[in-house]
Amino acid sequence: MELTKKTIESLGITYIEAGEGEPLVVLHGWGANIQSVMAIVNTLKDRFHVYAYDAPGFGDSAEPQTVWGTEDYARCLEAVLKALDIERADFIGHSFGGKTLSVFAAKHPEQVNRLCLVDASGVLPKRTLSYYLQVYSFKALRKLYTTIVPGDKTEKLQKFYARFGSDDYQASQGLMRRTFVKVVNESTAHYFARIKAPTLLIWGDKDDATPLYMARVFEASIPDSGLVVLDGGHFSYVDDYGTFQAAIRSFFN
Question: Which is a Pfam family this sequence falls into (predicted)?
Fold first, then answer.
């Protein structure tokens, strides 16, 4: 499978396609790329014409020219489908790819045949006492760090977040770092009830990035949905590949 690049929404978007049949589009998660979802592509390319693309700012695709939110990534998906002449398709999205699809499927039900969300984000985490203590401690440490460390304040903040920020935050730079901050604080839960497509939810029971209780929110809110729990973490489709393969091949039969 060769990588192809097209200019879509004034951005160079890299994608692959494999197999023959009805279209199925696979979206990767935050900080990932096409390679991270090849296990999904290879599972279904004998039944579908499968597409996967690097979202703007990831892999070989160009970065957005402004700070984007989840709705911007959903709008980009709409543009990708138009550029590839896909009027209606099945969709699978992992993590942030699932979050993007929760917006797209609600806004464009006429383009979604069936939907599979794997360890999807979109539900904001529960704010426990320990969470607020961590936030308070983090802010106190930031204040102390910027007070006692010599140098320009902007440079000190950059050094602080580079040292103490989350893995995703540290991996992002410039515009994509600000995009990450925006995206991670957005809930898409208000879109779930508007999703009309039959939806398969697949989750790892040990997922610590989007814990299993979040899957229950998706399941309770999306009218035609069902949940399959795998033995794995946030990349449950890799951790428990055999069960994942059986579940999606049955759903997309």
Answer: Abhydrolase_1
The count of structural domains within the chain is 2
Q: Does residue 92 share a domain with residue 156?
A: no
- CB burial class (10 A; 0-12, 13-18, 19+) of residue 147? exposed
The size of the chain, in residues, is 253
- Give tens-digit pLDDT for 25-59: 999 999 999 999 999 999 999 999 999 999 999 99
Q: Do both 110 and 138 map to the same domain?
A: no
- 97 — phi, psi (to 5°)? -60, -40
| Residues 116 and 230 reside in one and the same domain | yes
pTM of the entire predicted model: 0.83
Q: Are residues 42 and 113 in the same domain?
A: yes
Sheet holding 48-53, edge to edge: 4-8, 11-18, 48-53, 22-27, 89-94, 112-118, 199-204, 225-230
Asked if residues 161 and 170 have their Cβ atoms less than 8 Å apart, the reply is: yes
Q: Do 19 and 74 share a domain, yes or no?
A: yes
Domain that holds residue 163: 129-173
3-state secondary structure of 211: coil
Between CA 88 and CA 202 the distance in angstroms is 22
